[in-house]
Specification:
Helix content is 61%, strand content 0%. It contains eight helices and no strands.
Length: 146
């Protein structure tokens, strides 16, 4: 534990040094660090032009269910317009991201989503395969599941 007198002397020295206008500030300059931290947490770019769903695509990779869950629903509502972008994300190494892509494909359904869902039905991960196989009957015109 530091000695109380030593703390008082250090505090007084810091205050006297701060009163000198010509002297440079002592210690680390944290302003650039704070500015950089703000840049990192603030979205710097708007969604990709012509693809207003780009933020939702990025949210699919977020492990937080409160972020990726709503994104799945919003992407499914957009329909087949998002399928080309989903096909790229379906190559992700994380099985959970591929599972979310399968959920979006299942939500879209129809003939347009069938190739993506079929591809995920052959995924290396059993959990992704199961969900994709369950989603296959959602194809339009598929008839009753056997």
């Amino acid at each position: 534990m530091p000695h109380p007198c030593r703390l008082a002397l250090l505090t007084a020295a810091a205050l006297l040094g701060a009163a000198d206008d010509d002297a440079p500030p002592r210690g680390m300059d944290v302003v650039p660090l704070v500015k950089r931290a703000v840049e990192l947490v603030t979205p710097s770019e708007p969604p990709v032009a012509g693809r207003p769903w780009s933020d939702d695509l990025a949210a699919l990779t977020d492990p937080d269910p409160s972020v990726n869950g709503p994104a799945v629903g919003r992407l499914a509502k957009r329909g087949s317009a998002v399928l080309a972008d989903l096909a790229l994300i379906a190559n992700d190494r994380d099985w959970q991201v591929r599972l979310r892509v399968a959920r979006v494909g299942a939500g879209i359904g129809g003939e347009a989503a069938a190739p993506l869902v079929l591809r995920l039905a052959r995924d290396d991960d059993l959990r992704v395969r199961r969900l994709a196989i369950i989603a296959l009957p959602r194809r339009a015109g598929a008839g009753p599941a056997a």
